[in-house]
Model the fold of this input.
Amino acid sequence: MRRNAAGRPGLAGLAAILFLIGAAPADAFELFGIRLWGEPEDEIATIDIPDPLNITVTVAAPDDVRSTVEDASALWRGRDEPVPGKAGLLSRGRGDYRRILGALYEQGYFGAGVSILANGSEIAELNLASDIPDNSQVVISVEPGPQFSFGQTEIINAPPLVREENDVFEPPSSVGFETGSPAELGAIDAASSLTISQWRQLSRAKAQEVAREVVADHTTERLDVVVELDPGPVVRYGPVSNQGSERVDQEFITYMVGLPQGEEYDPDDVEDSRNRLSNMGVFDVIRIQEGMLSGPDNEMPILVTVSDRKRRGLGVGGTYSTIDGLGLSAYWLHRNLFGRAERLRFDASIEGLITSSSVEDYNYNLGATFTKPGVFTTDTDFITSLFARQLDYDTYRETSLTGQAGFRRTFTRNLEGELYAEISRARYEDDFGTREFLTFGLIGRGTYDRRDNEFNATRGYFLQAEVQPYYEAEFENTALRGTLEGRIYHGFGEARNFVLAGRAKVGSFVGASIEESPPDILFFAGGGGSVRGYAFQSIGVEGTDSDGDRIVTGGRSLLETSAEARYRFGDSNFGAVAFVDGGLVNAGSGFNDSGDIRLGAGLGARYFTAIGPIRADFAVPLDRRDGDDSFGFYIGIGQAF
Done:
């Protein structure tokens, strides 16, 4: 019996276990404090899911103040979601007093009263032991009182209101910090930041706010503010060092930063350094840190921290129009060929897919470009390229090989210039027959860009001028081609969701006759970036051949215009565009000939992305000729101009 008791249970023990099993609930069982299956009774009890909050907000003030209160209230913002118990209700409610008062203070309401009732009791006086029934009515009542205005507005040690080259110093009143204006706290911060940045423009890199006194007078409803600044000394650049890159030569990085030791500090120079490093294309992260001052000249060391991008990159792109077909492009890029951000890029594209089933009718482009930054100056790039192409347009067919070599220089943040030498060997087939050309020339280009965004401008303007003198060896001709283009943008409202955009381009060619000039140097119009509704380069000088059929050749003068009304729907990613394009090409170098202007008009849709809008435009030719399509549909990335 002892062995029985020690080794296995006897009959009495077995009966006791069976009794316990029978007595236990069917969905849970514990033995000697150990749960063998199921959940304990308190864990499987029914849990009530609270209802969304029943809340009312009353504000004795205009709608803009009511919106401020609602935006600040956590109770109101979470009204459509279940409240996480009594504790959650009390936590949100108690925090709302502070949040609502803070938001009203920001707008200048310094005598506001806030009441938040739950089931008729002030939440500030309730606790977890209080009786707060489910679905209690919550009422937020706000008496904002009068909006205060600024009384005394003083900035001690404010910078002088001067004009520093391209920098115009605005007074604090430009951000609402002046006597009589609404006493919004944000205006105080804005005025402080504005004046500190102005001191920094005057080489006082360590300017800072050292004291602020704010007094609200409830009898006069005025807010008196005194802000004291410490401009600090005039600062000069100290030594520049860098860290973080394992692939780019460190001496070259320091050189490209371009902040010579001993020169006076200018925040615009620092921003230009950041942009210059970014434009090199080899860094993912760029951080420029300003160190502590040292020495009698108050030199400030600069530490540049960067993170390398991948050495190689691959990209693809595409465009589509019902007239010109589908175009596909791809590139391969090496960003840092020899350790000083030298870029080697190969490009390939094919155009005209879908519209034709013959591979001979497609347009092909294949090329390579080498770019070396920091040549002669930190803002000068050396660029050389070699491109081969076969183009088949309605007006001519081209097979060519072109090489270029030259320099691109950034003069200011808005001004850029380019100068290249070019040699081209080409064969053309058009209404003049088959001709071959060998050209030697120069291309000079200047760009002044004051747009707020290159891919989706809402304000500003853009100017570009180009001249191209050349000598053609086969016909022994010299000629000069020039163009001037301008674009302007004006957005309306604070968000600038509605934008009017305009573009105009003029061009002139002097020298050789049309018959002895390469067609790609002459002028044509038409296409998605020119006159929508017409095929690419289908607008030119019209005539007839010996059989009386209409022919189109390039012209010696060009006029293009475009106007767009762009609208973005609120904060969404969608927008719409209405546009009109016009193009005129004349046989003469001026505009005295009897050329006809061709107009296209249409509507478009836009989907805005981080890299620019995706556009879809539908256009019709308003001066349709025999052979022209009745409409054109275009898809691409970026605005048309």
Residues 85-106 form the longest helix (22 residues).
